[in-house]
Recover the amino acids of this structure.
């Protein structure tokens, strides 16, 4: 409660300060703000009110390029889309992004895949480091973000490794040059209660100091038995113009998530005879005493200086502190189809502490060569991540449990002193990178770059050494040819370098993944640039990817496997007709092993995502919209208790959502959302042999005030 009161007090204080600034502006015509800043912020805010169009981004190359100028697949989930469909978590938002599969293996642990492979590179304003364990614990709230950018395909130039899935870039909300404020109050299914506040504007009469404060609180129960979750989010940024050419920014984001009775692991998806299990959607394996709390604090300081002649220098230093604390209950085994017996307990207490430093310094600008103007960016970056975690395993591991149909979560709280294990390791990464955009001719540009990366790790994780030293140079090249004023062809090539920590049968660490990725496509800007369209085909070769090869002496071992991933994508975003916004994408991807057999069967081959809204011309206060997410059938091969082969299957399914909003007056509006309109029952993921069912039909309503 202290956190909530403090954040709300700060919001009120900043709001009051902004209102006084507005009053001063109305009564004192001598108020002078930077004209270019005012125009950019105000015009941009008006233009983006309803827009689903992807905006220029530097996430792929650090050069600020429009989607058409970028020789890679780029998508954007805009603030308008996040607000229209009440996408308050990153999991929900990425379910709307073309080509991204959200693998919700548990209630509070998620993997993300694209083009058949795990996404491990998440960035904030272009700065980031891979997940420590390749997954997300808890739930990242979208309140601090202006938009979410997705660069599909290998992105070794900006991420340090050439993981060929995707890079997710969160673009944070920054202070605005004009005052604005907004409050959203939401109520929904399963006792959902949420408040969002966002206040921004100048803090001095001259406008040389600006601030923005975002606070969100959410508390909700669940369709899952016993499960509930509370989130508190604070995001604040200050900007100060130290001179006409130098701007200093300081920001801090805090998110606290508290989950009661979360699932650790999930439901058994098949019986011992190989038949599919079919539990109620509300079924949970969690105990009533289980909890999982996660906290992340992310602080950054950023200095940007105009060097003149179009050149800029920018330095960013980020400190990340992540803490997790959980008392969890895992259920393992394969139940009998007739009796439901065959499940056993595995209680554990878990704590983790992760500290990260991230630094990036670069310069960018234009230069002239051979009578033409080109662009260049060059920089250095480094990161250091220290992680300590410990697991206290409970007494009673292996206790037989009743059938899940009779499970009420009333397992006695054990003593967590059976045995202890954990991790303590440090990862360091240093990089030097450069990229240039060369204008070879009026219709032809070449984007070329390279990143030299040094990786150094030491320590242990659950009895396995994580020590490693690797280095590589990852080149990048892309060509863009303008066919006319609307369409461009592009081709790109990236090499892959991804160090691994998995061990083989001899106890040696596997060599890094290496490979190469190709992409070829066409992009267009239609209707005076209001609509982006794109079509792409891609092919990726990867050698020595770690795949489980069984157990030796109780230790899981891995072997390097070669993969070929190929497919194509279609996408459009923006204003299709006056008042009609659309974001849609279709992806086909096929992942094959060295024997040309279909691999990664848990990831859909076909994925369709679409969202659209329409503001009625006859009644512009009313906006209506719909969303669709469809994927084809997936499966996972399993080994049954008797040694025979089995299969878990999830048929193709579609999820439909509806929304409507109405502007009562310039300040007040109401909106309603309905998710899973057809009440589809589906398994959220087959990434593991366990899983659980997605949410049934649910609804929410929001009242909004803005200034």
């Amino acid at each position: 409660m202290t956190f909530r009161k403090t954040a709300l007090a700060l919001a009120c204080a900043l709001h009051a300060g902004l209102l006084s600034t507005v009053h001063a502006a109305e009564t004192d015509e001598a108020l002078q703000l930077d004209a270019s800043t005012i125009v950019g912020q105000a015009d941009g805010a008006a233009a983006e009110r309803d827009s689903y169009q992807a905006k220029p981004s530097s996430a792929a190359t650090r050069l600020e390029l429009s989607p058409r100028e970028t020789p890679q697949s780029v998508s954007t989930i805009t603030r308008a889309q996040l607000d229209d469909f009440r996408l308050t978590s990153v999991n929900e938002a990425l379910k709307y992004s073309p080509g991204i599969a959200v693998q919700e293996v548990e209630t509070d642990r998620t993997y993300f895949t694209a083009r058949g492979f795990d996404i491990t590179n998440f960035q904030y304003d272009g700065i980031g480091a891979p997940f420590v364990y390749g997954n997300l614990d808890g739930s990242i709230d979208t309140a601090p973000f202006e938009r979410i950018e997705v660069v599909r395909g290998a992105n070794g130039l900006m991420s340090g490794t050439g993981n060929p899935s995707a890079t997710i870039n969160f673009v944070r909300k920054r202070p605005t040059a004009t005052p604005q404020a907004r409050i959203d109050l939401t109520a929904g299914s399963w006792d959902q209660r949420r408040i969002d506040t966002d206040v921004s504007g100048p803090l001095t009469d001259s406008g040389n100091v600006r601030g923005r404060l975002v606070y969100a609180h959410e508390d909700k129960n669940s369709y899952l038995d016993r499960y509930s979750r509370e989130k508190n989010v604070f995001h604040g940024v200050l900007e100060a113009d130290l001179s006409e050419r130098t701007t200093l920014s300081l920001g801090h984001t805090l998110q606290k998530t508290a989950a009661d009775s979360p699932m650790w692991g999930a439901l058994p998806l098949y019986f011992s005879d190989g038949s599919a299990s079919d539990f109620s959607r509300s079924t949970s394996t969690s105990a009533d005493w289980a909890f999982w709390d996660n906290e992340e604090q992310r602080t950054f300081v950023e200095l940007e200086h105009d060097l003149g002649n179009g050149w800029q220098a920018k330095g960013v230093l980020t400190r990340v502190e992540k803490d997790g604390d959980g008392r969890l209950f895992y259920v393992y085994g394969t139940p009998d189809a007739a009796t439901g017996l065959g499940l056993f307990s595995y209680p554990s207490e878990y704590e983790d502490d992760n500290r990260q430093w991230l630094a990036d310094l670069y310069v960018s600008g234009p230069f002239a060569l051979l009578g033409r103007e080109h662009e260049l960016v060059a920089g250095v970056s480094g990161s250091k991540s220290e992680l300590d975690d410990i697991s206290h395993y409970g007494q009673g591991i292996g206790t037989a449990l009743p059938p899940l149909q009779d499970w009420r979560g009333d397992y006695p709280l054990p003593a967590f002193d059976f045995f202890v294990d954990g991790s303590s390791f440090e990862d360091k990464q240093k990089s030097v990178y450069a990229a240039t955009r060369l204008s070879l001719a009026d219709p032809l540009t070449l984007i070329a770059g390279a990143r030299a990366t040094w990786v150094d790790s030491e320590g242990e994780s659950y009895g396995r050494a994580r020590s490693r030293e690797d280095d590589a140079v990852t080149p990048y090249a892309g060509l863009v040819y303008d066919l006319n004023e609307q369409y461009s062809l592009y081709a790109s090539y990236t090499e892959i370098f991804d160090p691994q920590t998995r061990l083989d049968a001899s106890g040696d660490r596997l060599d890094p993944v290496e490979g190469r990725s190709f992409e070829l496509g066409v992009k267009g800007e239609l209707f005076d640039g209001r609509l982006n369209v794109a079509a792409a085909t891609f092919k990726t070769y990867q050698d020595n990817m770690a795949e489980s090869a069984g157990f030796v002496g109780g230790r899981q071992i891995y072997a390097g496997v070669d993969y070929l991933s190929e497919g194509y994508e279609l996408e459009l975003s923006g204003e299709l007709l006056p008042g009609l916004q659309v974001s849609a994408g279709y992806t086909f991807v096929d992942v094959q092993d060295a024997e040309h057999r279909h691999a990664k069967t848990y990831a859909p081959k076909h994925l369709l995502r679409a969202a659209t809204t329409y503001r009625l011309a006859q009644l512009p206060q009313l906006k209506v919209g719909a969303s669709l997410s469809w994927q084809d059938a997936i499966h996972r091969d399993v080994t049954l208790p008797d040694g025979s082969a089995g299969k878990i299957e999830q048929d193709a399914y579609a999820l439909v959502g509806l929304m409507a909003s109405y502007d009562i007056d310039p300040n007040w509006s109401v909106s309603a959302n309905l998710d899973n309109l057809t009440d589809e029952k589906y398994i959220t993921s087959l990434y593991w042999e366990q899983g659980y069912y997605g949410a049934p039909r649910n609804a929410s309503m929001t009242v909004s005030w803005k200034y």
Remarks:
- The chain has one domain: 2-706.
- The longest helix spans residues 2-27.
- The helical segments are 2-27, 35-47, 79-84, 90-94, 156-159.
